[in-house]
Amino acid sequence: MLVFKASEKLKMHLNSKAQKIGLVPTMGGLHRGHSTLIKKACCDNDVVVVSIYVNPTQFNDLNDLKKYPFDITSDKSFLSQFSKNVIIYNPGHDEMYPSGIKSKSYDFGSIALHMEGKFRPGHFNGVATVIEKLFKEIRPNNAYFGEKDYQQTQIIKALNRSLNLDVKIISCPTEREDDGLAISTRNKFLNSRQRSAAKKIYYALQELKVKKTKKFDVMKGFFINTVELSEDLKVEYFYIASIDNLIPVEKFHKHKKYRIFIAVLAGNTRLIDNEEIKFN
Ligand code: AMP
User: 44 lies in a domain?
Assistant: First the structure.
């Protein structure tokens, strides 16, 4: 499998023939959730670049960054199951941040203000800095992101639009464990009690989708009580936001689209998830 560390060499390789390029940006620690994106990218494109870069500026918590798993050998072997047209771009910090590790500053308006934007200050500036660079260097036709990070995907769409980067952004459904827990690189940090309790997150989200109430406080209370029944879990936030602007609301209209957004702490491990909810 081809692994590029320098963008110039990657560009030379990609430009050597006319082809449709797909990009799957990741931070490594590859798992079945990433596979959904890579498989779709392999179907749609002639060549698929999987970027693996643990971006320091999108970590607002230094301990989270320090313990984030990085194992290029295991990621390479994981990627060998896919088509031969998958290549890895694994740049170092010098390549991504030639003038020092600092993110650019963007104004995404309301979509960046709540949920992850509120609880992880600076996070989306860090994400956007790296994605802007990857899009400009690789010039992919298509780029693939997971619905699990719904707010992030909306940020990327806004970035792409505002800078006219001309990339088609493709959002892929959340891949889950058998009990519904959204697959994440961070799940491996859960101890067995936390892991077992974490299934309540998806269970509570599904119950909310079929509940007949429109009362926000009742829904939030139900989610917190269900999840925090286990003393291993603590709800960091519960919001229902309109998908147009990602502004949390507490009153709902029949014809508008909403999503539930949650973050739950299991010890030091943060789990996020989101689900569409309809109010008829
Ligand atoms: P990460 O390596 O965690 O930065 O994730 C890289 C990409 O994979 C992002 O677009 C994520 O939204 C996506 N992703 C991560 N986990 C999942 C999952 N369980 N299902 C679908 N997409 C995912």
Answer: yes
Indicate the SS3 state at residue 226.
Answer: helix
> Does the global pTM surpass 0.70?
yes
145 lines ligand 1 (CB under 6 A): yes
Residue range of the domain that includes 197: 185-277
Which ranges constitute the DSSP H helices of 97-191?
A: 116-119, 123-138, 150-162
Nearest-CA neighbor of 61 among 280, 269, 247?
269
Residue nearest to atom 6 of ligand 1 (CA): 26
Please identify, by atom number, the ligand 1 atom nearest to the C-alpha of residue 148. Answer: 12
CATH of the domain at 254: 3.30.1300.10
Cβ of 36 below 6 Å from ligand 1: yes
Q: Do 83 and 201 belong together in one domain?
A: no
Angle between helix 123-138 and 7-15 (nearest 10): 40
Residue 156 near ligand 1, beta carbon < 6 Å: no
Mean pLDDT of 255-269: 96
